[in-house]
Amino acid sequence: MTIEFFARLPLHGETQYIPGDNRNRGDWNRQPHASTGAVSSSEVGDDFAYVDYLSQVARAAEINGFSGALLVNAPFGDEPWIVSAALARETKRLRFVDAFHPGHFSPWQATQMAASFQRISGGRLVWNVIQGGSDGLLRANGEPLPHDERYVRAIEFLDLVKGFWANESFHYKGRYYEANGGGLRGPLARAPIPTICSAGTSDGAKELAAKHADYYLVLAESPDHVARNIADVKARAAKYGRADHIRFGVSVDAIARETDEAAYAEAKRFFDEGVRAGTVKAAAVRSTQMSDTNRARFERYNGREVADFDDLFVEPHLWGGFGYIGIPPGFAFVGSYENVAAKIRQFADLGLSWFFINGYPHLEEIYRLGEHVLPRFRAPKLVSAIGNAGEGDGEQAVPLVSGGGLAARGNG
Ligand SMILES: Cc1cc2nc3c(=O)[nH]c(=O)nc-3n(C[C@H](O)[C@H](O)[C@H](O)COP(=O)(O)O)c2cc1C
Known about the structure:
Blueprint: E1 4-9, H1 50-63, E2 68-71, H2 80-88, E3 95-100, H3 107-121, E4 125-129, H4 135-140, H5 147-166, E5 170-173, E6 178-182, H6 186-189, E7 195-199, H7 203-212, E8 215-219, H8 223-238, E9 247-257, H9 260-277, H10 279-287, H11 292-302, E10 313-315, E11 318-319, H12 321-324, E12 332-336, H13 337-348, E13 354-358, H14 362-372, H15 380-391
Parallel strand pairs: 1-2, 1-13, 2-3, 3-4, 4-7, 7-8, 8-9, 9-12, 9-13
Antiparallel strand pairs: 5-6, 10-11, 11-12
The site of flavin mononucleotide has 23 residues, from helix 7, strand 8 and helix 11.
Region (Disordered): 17-41
Protein name: LLM class flavin-dependent oxidoreductase
Domain Luciferase-like: 43-352
């Protein structure tokens, strides 16, 4: 199985410290006017806007061999589709995995916009079909439907998008939408339909993935849970004859350093800063804004006694500390470059082939991962060239997803 790596673009600020800290980049800080990171005032005539920083991150991802970048959608961050349209012209190969809430668009408008994006970018749009957080949070922004019903609507939505894409004259009548002879025509019809990702562990989410997703995405957590979700979605996809079609991806952070000790020191720095800044309580409050299944995941790993950062290892090199202090996606692979690579292989063996992996700050960590971790998953010739340049851990060129030894760390 081929592994592909995707970076992330920080659409709600760059977090080297705890979210809200004035030393971070962007203007999501507690006192934007007192920020010490890269911040623009977003006024006409400014030489610099936050998208210029995002452009650096996107270019770094491309230069370092990432296949694409994940753009998450949060109500307080920039909108992914707009940002990626701007960045498509500043990059050459990078694919944009745009979080995309079907309830915010009409099926036809989304189809036409996606076709134009594909023409502008050379077919680099990937949709991550999301459903947002809690019902309350969604209602605040005008979403009338409850959780399960949103998935019924989303399945119909994708029926329509696929119908419009494949037919010049498409007819459909569902509970939420109908179509009476519309469809892409001419040059737009020749654009490739976006690759479709979806996520979520509720029944509705898994049914949507089973019928429509090319990639079902999970957040990293204990491998047992991940394996169970993958098996469940594969079984559901079989109903649509798609068990062999659907593939799987995972979102995870990384703290990868020369040695395990250096990586643990960085994990501890985040943990200590979070505890000092009181973000643990804030994360618990924020968990009430999550969907039911995400809150259950948060509680699964954060409900225990935590005295120090290393109480949050659920197994060697798999650290739930970011979730504990409120930084999504929650889990990180933490350790030496070799042990982070081994962790990637362990998760790949569960059936995962797309790895959305990054650290903080995204720009610097993309270079770090690009120089020390990604080459371990490339063709042997390239890896040995890098080995000769003196990386010095003596590791041979590694074929994709071979096993690797793990140093023990954590409390089980
Ligand atoms: C890799 C990944 C990326 C996600 N990105 C977003 C996002 O950008 N915005 C969002 O609101 N939800 C995002 N989600 C959340 C899911 O779309 C989904 O709403 C969530 O997993 C809860 O679904 P459920 O309650 O149906 O199980 C993401 C999930 C995963 C695994």
